[in-house]
Amino acid sequence: MKFTGILRAFSAAALAVGLCGCSIRFGTNVTPENGYYVAKPSDSALTEKLGVTYAEFMNDYTYYLNGMGIEDDSAESVAETCKSRRYAIIESLILEKICVLKAEEYGVSELSEDEIKQAQSMADAIIEERTDYYAKNLDYGTLEPTELSDEEKQKRAGEALDKALAEYGFTREDYLEKQKRYVLGFKLLKAIGETLDRGDAEKQFDESAKLAKETYESSVTDYEQSGLSQYYVPEGSRFIKHILLNFSDDAVSAITMTRKSGDSEGADKLREENAAALDEKLAEVLGKLNDGGNWDEISNEYSSDKSGNSLYPDGYFLIPNGTTFMDEFKNAAFSMEKIGDMTTCVTDYGVHILLYSSDASITESDREIVIETLFAKMMQQEFTKKTAEWIKEYGFYDNIDYTVLEIDKPTPTDSESSQ
To answer: Given phi > 0 = left and psi -120 to 50 = alpha, else beta, which region is 139?
Structure first.
């Protein structure tokens, strides 16, 4: 089973609820208050292994407050957001503890040397981030910040970080443990993935491809709005890049209003007049392109459609008989005979230089990428299902100190109540 591509496609956000706030074993100097369990399993024999301490919770919650610049979490503007975050943090900390236990059951509790290095790199990044926070926000007393060197600021920031960690019995070393837990979570995710059948993702792709084809044959507009182009691409589809030499906002507004009033002839006349004013600029751009200039560089310099260049680096996706683009643009796009051809057209928005960038089709490689993404989603769904079952299995929801955490106890669903 290959997981490299899956994990690449599987965003870190997939474990956001479960592991993004994951903490670590608590440090060596935990006070009785910090060592109080704000969440624990129903089986007291597992409390030491699975329980979440006040120190662990506060370390993550303080990190959140600092990062968001929140000084008073009871302020009306942030109170509900902070309450939601407190709930997310305690749930993620519970899950982290459970994942460590389950990793042993799945036989993936050992980290390789490379995985430890990965955890160390992530820990170093967090330490640097937190140190930078203190460097920027420390109260330097009577000294102006400009009177201190960057080196001195970093030194004091490091001391402030160590002091803040010590309040909850932590040291910087605990950040490594924290990130080890994070890496371990992905190992557990992969282990769960090995229990799934990739063939189900392939079947899902084939079913979606069939649906996409049927949708296109039934209604081109429905197909364009369906988001199914990753499964099926109509024959003859192509990618078109363009450079837009736009009309002024006033000109576009005038053309639009004239056309809406029913005076298409007047709108076309306005369009031609504005296009003529761009003849010199059009000739300049075409000259550079015909002299062998780099399309993307010239497009970035001249085109008004910068967002399109960024969102669609391969060009706009056009299908035969499509309805998304204006007829002038679509007709020009399909008038070109071979890849690399260029042409121009005028729409109500300006003058366009079009490039037939490439044919659009779904290759075997494209299919595999989509299947990997579908399988990653299956893994995420299975992981989410498992973790919900585990939290319930260990009886955590009845053993969270909702008062201390200032969060609401979740109301069980009817099905849960009847079980």
So the answer is: beta
Q: What is the pLDDT of residues 68-103, one digit of tens each?
A: 989 899 999 999 999 999 999 999 999 999 999 999
Cα–Cα distance for residue pair 182/180, rounded to 1 Å: 5
Confidence tier at 123 by pLDDT (50, 70, 90): very high
Which residues lie closer than 8 Å to 211 by C-beta, 6 or more apart?
228, 231
- Asked if residue 256 lies in contact with residue 269, where contact means CB atoms within 8 angstroms, the answer is no
Asked if 244 and 383 sit in the same domain, the reply is: no
Q: State residue 292 phi and psi, 5-degree precision.
A: 95, 15
Domain containing residue 277: 234-361
Among 18-22, 35-39, 251-255, 296-300, the range scoring the smallest mean pLDDT is 18-22
Asked if residues 70 and 78 have their Cβ atoms less than 8 Å apart, the reply is: yes
Helix (H) or strand (E) holding 151, with range, is helix 150-166
Tell me if 233 sits within 8 A of 362, measured CB to CB.
yes
**Number of domains within the chain:** 2
Beta bridge partners, 317, equal 239
